[in-house]
Design brief:
The protein has two domains: 1-30; 36-124, YaeB-like fold, CATH 3.30.2310. It has 126 residues and is α+β, with helices and mostly antiparallel strands. Helix 2 (36-45) runs antiparallel to helix 4. Strands 1-5-4-3-2 form a five-stranded mixed sheet. 41% of the residues lie in helices and 30% in strands.
């Protein structure tokens, strides 16, 4: 069998497989969160968020609203070096993010079995 025939068969099978995957996976909430940063943020985002009253006032002081917090879960960078991680919950994760108009911030989240708690927010130097 010549190279051209093998290439045509390969590309035909590959194309058919891609079409079948698109058909079966359309409408499903599939994601490719393979890296540790993406998996951690997805884990934190999957649980209800709790905030204390003092932290709500602090968020208002820095002009940070719930949309900004959702942005932290989507675009933040987990600083594993400054996080406290063990084999059992609760773990404390530090997530850093830079907002365009507000500057750089460090958020600390406590991951519990049933919820995620925002425990502190601090501005950081760029």
């Amino acid at each position: 069998m010549s190279f051209i025939k093998r290439l045509v068969y390969y590309l035909g099978g590959f194309g058919l497989g891609v079409i079948l995957l698109m058909f079966f996976l359309s409408g499903k909430k599939t994601s490719c969160d393979y890296g540790p940063n993406a998996r951690t943020l997805k884990f934190l985002k999957s649980k209800p968020l709790q905030k204390s009253n003092t932290l709500i006032r602090e968020l208002a002081h820095y002009n940070i609203d719930s949309a900004n917090i959702q942005s932290v879960f989507l675009n933040g960078e987990v600083n594993f070096k400054n996080s406290i991680i063990s084999s059992e919950l609760p773990n404390i994760y530090m997530v850093e993010i830079s907002f365009e108009n507000k500057g750089n911030f460090k958020f600390r989240f406590r991951a519990k079995k049933d919820s995620t708690e925002l425990i502190s927010i601090k501005p950081s130097d760029p």
